[in-house]
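**User:** My hope is that you can spare some time for a protein that puzzles me. I have put the entry right below:
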Amino acid sequence: MATVSTLNPLQPEAARAPASPAKNAQWIDKAKAHLLQNYKQQPIVLERGLGSRVWDADGREYLDLLGGIATCGLGHCNPEVVAAVRGQLDKLWHVSNVFYSQPQIDLAARLTAAAGLPRAFFCNSGGEANEALIKLARKVQKDRGQPGRYELITFENSFHGRTLATVTATGQPKYHKGFEPLPEGFTHVPYGDLDAVRRAVSERTAAILVEPIQGEGGVRQAPPGFLKALRALCDEHGLLLLVDEIQTGMGRTGKVFAYQHEGILPDAISLAKSLGNGMPIGAMLCTEEAGQSLTPGTHGSTFGGNLIAAVAANVVIRKVSEPQMLRDVAQKGEFFLGRLRELQVRLPTVIKEVRGLGLLVGVELFQDAAPVIARCRDFGLLLNAAGDKTLRFAPAYTVSHDDLDQGVRLLEKALRA
């Protein structure tokens, strides 16, 4: 089973002491009585965390190599994020977008400078950020005098959100079931197949929406040159190139944004997850021309760019823009991939493929992932599945080499169990 919490000098004495036994079970029973049962939740109740470690209600310690699903890039309870949030709590929490606020303005300035896209819109989640992309593409084409251009080309095995529009954009039929009829205006083609994209372009096409790495689709990276070819195709046909950076953005791949690996500039991108280090915030960044289409009244969000979330995100963009931080992510990613590929050599009939970029890594198995995830948790390692047979790792950028090495050892133990 997972180990009992070890002493941590950064945690107060009361927080270090194990809780009374069976608190997990008590809380889970209450959850089952009151929460909508729409998640397949792992049977532990997490209470606190620090860096790459978390503790459950029974006081057990876990190595967290999932990071809130690619969200806590700076680690749990990062001291700089905590200090920024605490400082803002004593000033002002929320004013809505009827007024300006300095943290939001600072965040917009930092993000647009890092992305090379001069306009920012803030919302609360990745799904909302992708909704903004979809609305932007349609509005831009109408403002160009082409109202018949409203369709988006997206990709099989993609994932773009849970709203009705973004789930339709998602190229996985399992997410569509039960919600038909779906909104029209979306065409799915095989990921990485440029010829299929070309064939799908028509007089109705407004934009192409693509993930640099399909996170929920199994941590699958686009072929080299694919994004650059999509950029050229969009320029050729007057389309917008929209890049979903929800999982890959904010330093996850060793660049601030994953599209920067190919030296292109999209027309707009979506952000969330690591943007707030766990605080709920999403964003859309776009070109000046595209941004002119969203005039007052065309789009909005009550909580978007909330002051508390914005101050957290300011810390994140400042940290992940540091060259040393990005070099560390790239180097740690190479180290982790190398150790996992060594494990694949030792277990060739168990591990089918190891893939990823930076600290977004997938391990595809020849068997279902769910039992392995459960055994990993029993041994004190947290991760989840991306697809039925792929284990997903998305640790904090601050994770140590020793923790990554321990993660591989625990995974091997679980795979051999």
